[in-house]
## 1
Amino acid sequence: MIKLIRLDMISLICNKLNKSNFFNYYIVTPWIYAIGTCGEHIDIANRISSFKKKEIIVIKISIFQKLLNYHVCNHDLFDNLDFGNKKNNKILKTILTILINLEFIFIRIFVLLNDKTLNLKLPEYIRFPQIGIKEVAYNNKDLFKKDFNKIKPYPNHSTVKLNSFKSEQNKRIFDKTFNITNNKIVCLHVRDSKYRSDSKKRTYRNSKVDTYIPAIEYLIKKNYVVVRLGDKKKEKINFSHQNFIDLYDNKHDIYLINNCSFFIGTLSGPMDISYLFQKPTLTTNVHSMYIGFPRNFKDRIIFKKAVLNNKEILLNEHLDLPFSYHNYLEQMKDLNFIDNTPNEILEATKEFVNNLEKNNFDKTIIQKKFNDRLKKKMQSFFSDNSSDNSFHKHPLAINFIRWSKTQQGAVCNFILNKEFKEN
């Protein structure tokens, strides 16, 4: 491991520069292979760079992709985002890109050789660089010795968008291809069992797209064009309409999310891009209280119905379960989930659109109470030193805490009124 760290010297220097008050830039290498994690990393780095009054430099790992067995999830996230940078130091970015990619070659070769021979379990920050991210989102060192109340939330969001040139270029192609004249676009993304062919693995993460048809029909009546994101492997939907577009590739995803009126989806990559662009976001069919909870003030969420030992439980009962029941990395054998019904998705959509039309996102008393209870439960996970508390072993513990203190959205009122009972 010592030799590997020496190979990581460029990354170490970049992280030192990020901390320096005399270096005017914040360097970040988002994970390149997963669009959701990439979007979250850019969001975090953008918040921190703005707070530090530094200009963000997003570095793309892209060298020898086939040879080194990886791929770039979406080039627009690395090449075409506008952070409002005034200096936009292209020379520095080019130099850093060359150096970090060269460093990556040696580290990646080590990783691939290890996977074929020693098969040591290497952390993800070795497999792919996490410059500008690891120290703030994945560093649990001495975390549980700290005062919970002194752990800071992530800084306030700073504007990021697709640059105007790329946005206009995509608009011309998309409008011409689909004959679009209405700019009221709603993006829809539903993670299903075709995604990563995981129909038998953690099925609670998936949902049925046909259950969204009543909501789609409602939005079309409201004069929206609904665009379903996804690739050619996704499940077919039993619905067609001139104002419903079902995409089968990802080349327009960033443009569409950047320019949509709002986003409706499930816990999957495109949701994080919507959060990154601060688009009003309605997340449905959610299985965990702590992953993907609404980040921004206008965002809303509804949860799947939890079933513990074959008995349906309320939201407050689900909330009070140990952390292992909220951890997507663990198999929850005695906890199952019932998907949102078509009517629940429709009701959530109606409530969400009503908020948008009235431009009123103030939280109700019950929404505030649920959010307060959620934060208190996170603190209890932190304070619980028992050996069976899996939160203390989770690699993202600090990230969960910081997001829980940052989140500004809420659960939809109608679902809280049915499913949330105060003790």
Note: The chain has 16 helices and 14 strands.
## 2
Amino acid sequence: MSIHLYPSGMKFYCISLIAIFILIANTTTSQWMYQKSATTITLHAVCFPNDFTGFVVGDSGLVMKTSNSGLKWSRQIISDSKLNNVKFIDGYTGWVVSNQGEIFKTTSGGDTWETQKTGTTRSLYALWFLNESTGWAAGDSGTFLKTTDGGYRWNVALPFKARRFDAFYFLDSKIGWFTYSDVPAGLAKTTDGGESWTLIHNFGHAQYGIYFFNELTGYTCGGSYTLLKTTDGGYNWSSPDTKDESDSPPATYTGISFVDENTGWFTEAHPLGAGVYPVHDGYGESLRIKIYNLYDVCARKSGYAWAVGEYGTIVFRSNSASIDFLSDYNENVNRFSLSPNYPNPFNSETKIKFSVPALKLSQDSPVRISVFDVSGREVDILANGYFKPGDYELTYNAGKLSSGMYFCKLVSGNFAVTTKMILMK
């Protein structure tokens, strides 16, 4: 989702300072970790079709891909336009839309892209595909397109006129919703796979993010601190958000995604401090960034989540682990370390200490801490990003694993160390 809210002149920090902030920032307790994107280009949307393969799009035609949950990202320029959204149905087949009405498709996991004819040069924002054949793309000035052949032919399917169409969400081949900006902004629903749409609700502000768990329960987020929930399929909405709305200008919530009905995240854009926040915990465990905006978030059922935004920002979290910063680094520590977990054996929860050496040794080497089963399969990711030098203690909840022997492995650059863990439930 691409949303520009504030002029770049309102940013008071240079890019070099931002880069340093990304490398060393850490709160006392945090589940969010910075990942190195190797770009300062603004990123607008993120999509992970599985736990390991992900795609991010941004300004200047930039597409980035990871095959290891964001530990490393490759870069590719496919256009000179701003890329607003990305949608993949698996690790190989996906689409990207731009602010020039372009739609790009790949069937090779992003190795190559083909340009599809749309018949418009208007900016496209909303994008959704049910499968390899059927999808929608929509955007400015009432642009609303549908394809039934994977995008080789895009046909106008305008349900009604609106200034801008913002976001889609489909539960299945029949039931879906979209949000649009106009006076007033609103929500429309289909129960016949998009053959017809019915306007079911008007909002006070544009809604840029939308997510539904089933035909009744869903969320939207948007302008002026708007975070809304429905339990009747979108006809009526209430606000679970308790944030102080006295800021001027007010913040805009830019994207929303969920692990499950109890765990979800939304991103924020605001010149005085943006971030990514939990839907169900007010403003509890979160990441607050006072320099730049975040524009999209993607969460998976595994508990992993990624958020992206200005200056190439990518942050990652794991629902399985929380990390406490214990102390600043000791200058005599010149290598990474991983201590055995305790208790061991353990029942569901255990603690793991690790150390990150001096910045000059670690700034180019992200830290990945993973859990492997006896067959060598990676079954959980506990840390996957950059840490400032120091000692840390990680609390790991292995509730999703069955009893048995596992291995905890820390990798950073050429350094790797493994410890053995015994889970007994």
Note: Confidence is low (pLDDT under 50) at residues 4-29.
## 3
Amino acid sequence: MNIKNRTKFVSAAVCTAFVTAFLINPMPAMGARKVTEIKLFGNSTDKPATDAMIKRFEEKYRNIKVTPTYYAVTEGQAALVTQLAAGTAPEIIQAKPGSGSVDGIVSMAKNGMIAPINRNWSTLVAKDDRVLRYKGTIYGVPMSASAVGYMYSPEIMKKSGLLPPQKWSEVKPFCAAAKAKGTPAYGAPWATGWPTIMHTYAQTATLLYSTKPSFSEDQYDGKATFAESPWVKSFEMMEDMNSWGCFNASPNSTTYAMLTDDLAKGKVLGWLGLPTIIPALTAIAEAGTTWSFAAHPATDKVKETFIPSSILRVYALNKKAENNYAARKFIDFLASPEARKIFVGLSGGIPAGPVPGYVATSPAIAEIMSYRAKKKTFAFIDQQWQSPKVQQALIAGIQAMFAGTDTPKGVAEKMDKALQGK
């Protein structure tokens, strides 16, 4: 082989080797897109809605990936506290308004766990707002509002031949008739914890807060107490309902998941709770089953009935992500009408801000909106409590009442001690 031919052979061999190496270990493409990952801490109840929002966000911002982790309410609160303390919590946190729960916006802002949003959202968050602002600064993005009332299926109720009570005197015969048909009138998933609060929130909205909206302020001023207020009566009303056979058997052993399944299958007629249960019910119930909402009576005067209703679902920015560009992009997206429309459409909620062309997603939501339009609502009271310990005392107290180890007065007194920080 002459030198010329040898050179050609070597050159060809080198080229072949280079191409082979490239095919096995390709070089990064010029200008390849760098993807930034952020993580989200979410409520399992809202998984379909949150997943849909994330999908839309990633379509708009292809260089940002959002990875969610979902928790049930009670377990999630404990996990979030642990993660925030350890510095391992996700950049985006689904939270609650106010300071009445450990994942409350005001509570976390006060403890330096979340970052200020620093956006001029006066049309979305009122300047005098006290559940999403801390010291006047916005810390939470409101997504949806909700309400407490009797959730039921008109189709299932029609088969029973009954109608939800509109007066307190109608509750006892309603429960008796339902029990006679072998179907408890009210689901009671006390084992899960947070559902225990729904009855007292519904009853005190009418018995107390509709006429004394400043009651919480009076408490902190030392002018009022739970133990000397209609809160005691609300607990007594729960005891009455229990003695009338209104609830399913063994409330303290019944979970929210069990209640959801029973309600969807018509094994219990209704539940005094939130419409956020609707997506889960729809996934289990027979096709064509719809879900409605009825205000829970506390007196015999229908016009006096109020319902608890206010912002429920909000998002916050972890303090460690204060200067995270991708996380702030997602927060800005959450504040958009597009994100709110997606969220409320799949979560069983009401928009917490403007959504052009919004139409109620169920008869339940339409009924709640009518109460809100008539201004016959009062905010979820825990949002005014300055410590999560008050709600914790309420939950433990109701469970103890149903276990026969505490009394209405005793529960109220323990709530007073929690409010006073004792």
Note: Residues 139 and 285 are 38 Å apart (CA to CA).
## 4
Amino acid sequence: MQRRWIIFWVLAGAYFFVMFHRFCTAVMAGDLTADLGLDPAALGFLSSMYLLGYASVQIPVGILSDWWGARKTMSIFLLVASLGAFAFGRAESYHAAVLARWLVGAGVGCIYVPALRVLGCWFGKDAFAFMTGMLLAVGNLGALGSTWPLAVIKSIWGWRATMEVVSLITLVLVGLLWLTIRDNPPESEESGERCNANVDEQSTAAAKQPGGLRVMLKSRRFWALTFYFFAFETTIISFQGLWAGPYLKRVYGMPDTSIGYALTWLALGLMVGALISGILAGRSLQRRHAVLTSGMLGYLLCWVPIVFATDSLAPYMTPLLTFMGFCGGFFSISFGIARECFDARMAGTALGVYNFTGFVGGGLGMWVMGLIVRWVSPEATNDIAAFQTAFGLALVLMFVGWIMLVMLPRAFPASDRQSV
């Protein structure tokens, strides 16, 4: 096997656990509540710490990749994630668990960007898009691993031992990263040339220009699209990453394995939807906007029965979650539209801000939904109304986000390079 493929599979293994940690609390919610004595608000805040930790390192990770190099950055921060996962499994108090969860998020938050730099150097521009897709595909397998497989393993070992084993596997990956990863291929090191990892030099330079940043901050079209993305990520991460688990357990009395099974179909739907939407989108910006808007309409409509028939969906839950995931998978098109809001000089900066808002939204959404559930049903005696209220907020937020998306071509005309 060529060395570059060994490097890819080690990077993919690390990214598998990035996605695993993002969604694992949905299946473990009942155990966390019982063991740590959490109310819904505390559970939401605990789960949000991963996303807030992840978001907190998104700006410095690029600088660290340039300064330390991708190999050192990923190795050091994945070690932090390993320690955080071990501390999470051993946590005996709420505050210890919160800190551990933040460490996990901050640690795995420094994997994706450096990994892209390494892949760009080792596989070149022509194969970069394909290898990025491969990396994301393995990451989605990590999301799948956090559903039914985690529920089964947890039922045998318990959630604490499971997290400790995950920590040990992550520690092995730290060693593999350090031993196998090289920032640049041997030929570029011998020639003394530094690979730019397919990063647009114009984009990097533009990030340092206040004038370019002002253009981005003044673009109504970009912020309209960003609000849609904030709404989508807030609702899907809050639901898939945490509150789907307590909802299915407390309203329908599902065991953890059944919850994991249902969420597996949601994750599979997201994978298939992302693939199909990419095929349907084509190269036309107008067509991409139409496909994205249609997919998000389907996703929005899935929230209607969850809100208005909260306790009457048992026979339809799996197909509903599958369809929700399928339509939600269309969100991947939005990154291309966000990039087209500006010329190439600002593309990297715009995508960084765009992605950052999604993680912040997901973290805040988990916490706010927990506050709502605790407020409506403080003694867990009115769970149906509690989840109706929390999910109703998600429906309203997503509706406003979808309206912004629909209005994008007309109400927010391009003042930059190209209109939608």
Note: The chain has a mean pLDDT of 87.
